[in-house]
Design goal:
The complex is a heterodimer of chains A (364) and B (416). Chain A is an all-alpha fold. Helix content of chain A is 75%, strand content 1%. The N and C termini of chain A lie far apart (71 Å). Chain B folds into two domains: 211 residues, Response regulator (Rossmann fold); 131 residues, Rossmann fold (3-Layer(aba) Sandwich). Classes of the chains: A mainly alpha (364), B alpha/beta (416).
Chain lengths: 364, 416
Amino acid sequence: MGTLSSVGRRRPAHFRNRWLRPALIVVVAVVLIAAPLGLPAFANQTLVRVGVYAVAVLGLNIVMGYTGQVNLGQIFFVGLGAYVTAYGVTQGWNILLVFLAACAIAGLVGLLVALAAARLGGLAIAMVTIALPIVGVPLAKRLSDVTGGSQGISASFSNAPDWSGLFTDQWQYYIVLLVTAAAFLLARQLMRGKYGRAFSVVRANEAVAMSMGISPYRTKVLAFTIASIFGGASGFLYLAAVQYTSPETLSFGHSISLVAAMVIGGGGSILGSLIGGAYYVFVPQWTNTIDPNFTTVSQGVILLAVLFLLPEGLVSLPRVVRRLTRRATARPALKNPPQSTPAQPPTMEAAPEGLETTERHDRS
Amino acid sequence: MNVRRRTRGALGVVAMASVLALSLAGCRGGTASSGSSTSPGITDTSITLGITTPLSGATAGPGTCTVAGVQAYFGAANAAGGVKFGDGKTRKVQIKTYDDAYDPQKSLANFQQMVSDGVFAETAGLGTPTNRAFRDAAISQKVPQVLVMTGDPLFSDQKQSPWQVGFVPIYQNEGEAFGKLLAASNAPHKVAILSQNDDYGKGYVSGFKDAIKGASNISVVGEQTYEATDTSVDAQLTQLAATGADVFFNAMSITPLVISSLQKAQQIGWKPSWFLPSNTSSPTAILAPGGASAFPGIYSVSFAKAPQSPDFAKDPDVVKFLSDLKQYGNYPDMPAFPHCMWSYMVGATLEQAFQNMKEPTRDSFMTALRSVKDFQAPLMLKGTSVNTTVDGQPAVSSVLVQKYNGKGYTTVQNFG
């Protein structure tokens, strides 16, 4: 106990900065690992679903939030991953192989679609991605030998084995935690490295990207493929959580809900994807308890409220709160401060015309 | 010195977290053990039922009806003092409703929430994928998922689905009823078949074909399918019309397609007798806009009295049903979907089971529910009944063939 209270005591700045972060990571990790043992089953089941959709939203965030390409077909890859998983499990494949297949097949289909779609650019990509779930649903119904038709297919591999001594909800939680944590770490590293930078340059200005030697086409294909792989992983988790999939899984409406969840959580943010996944799961659950007859209405109200109050998503909430409190505390202290310089440095967006004209000038 | 303090800080955090983890781990044991012999969701004065069904989205109309009917039935029963159970106690029936928007993932979530809310049994939910999504979970947790609104035969298979009972007739039952009527007519008939290319369409067609097997007077002259996502079946209709069939068996589940095919057949001058499934044969919503009076006969099947029909306007069942629906079901209009009547019958069937269950447990409830025999639920047509004792059949497997009379339907004994 003494050691813990000593952490709170004032320390030299370098100590706190260097130790706070790893300590925080350890605490978060321990809490994540220990949580399911203490939580009631329903809380675990809810967290499992959050993980499923957080991975799907994360993939969407990579292609939409970071690279700026509209993708309305993410649910297709989730469904594809789920079907591959269901098929593999019913065929008795090794579960690791099933997972790899779910990711690889979704990634491969994503790559093929992207190779064609990324050439189109702009809104045409969005149109192609809309087509995916629209084609996917009848396809899933038609290929009934593999997919079980419109009645769907059940496959359970995520029941807790006897040796573990765990309940099924806890076992599922650990499966989902493992994959979700790996996905988030992977995405974080990816977005911090050269690919992340390439994605954001392509999003900001394709001409600039080209001038830096980055091919916008290849970058878009890469982002799209990564998103599809994440979608496939999410589909694997979907089957771990739900143990059943049907053509309803990949219906177009859910794709729009995923986009909404991404925007709500925060586009172009890793943490925002997690919040988006939580939004996707919690809000319907919550609106159900308010009044099950008005779930769509209350979801719409929440969506609008968040968008108006926090246009950058829920992930920007601490920033906004900090800004507001700073303003509130700063005002009484300063009485008409003479201001000669802008309070904040101008952002990049402040001068898009400049870039545009130079580029046009260069070309002519 | 500095190093030691650092390690101590980090170690402390880990130690604290571990203590937290261990103390949390202790909690679960307490919640998991339940010592009493009573199942969750039932007390000496009340029983709680859950319904997960689409209350938003494209299937919200029928979904809302599945809730309204059950609420109407038990609202009236509660107002009359409650339901007398087989163990001698009188209980009020509470209904908890959950919206799944026809999304399987949400229906599973709703089921998990029901378990945590302490619901005794799930009932009356609409939809094949949504019911299938939590079927395995219901079996493994031994929670009854009974009298559900799906034509999927899996829910009526007692071996595979020990905690499930389907309510509405399976697709085969409907096709079979019409096939039998046609075969019994003794007159030669040429039949054209159009069906949706999924388990729905296939179920109807297999039931129909089983019934006409061996009937020499019936010949199938043309067979076409369409996809549930198709927006037009004009090509199929033209081909079927060319066969010169005088009976058209149309296993179609999509309302606008049924209307447009009724119109198209008139345009091309093909006027056979029609068979339509029970869920796409509404007199007001489909037959009137489709101009169905132009055909010699439109046949469908039913087991519920239609409140819209003038024949049943003064029927005591219908009068009570409509007033209950308005007062307790929060549904002031004339029911637009048969699911309102069906779920009212679900309420009555559940009451039968409640009256016969000897102990306040789920096991006893399932035993009681599986022994309801020849029960004439309110609103049921004469000649149909609830029978849960036959393996492989839903609670209601008997349907009557009816013929459109320009306003509603009348039961017919013979074809033609």
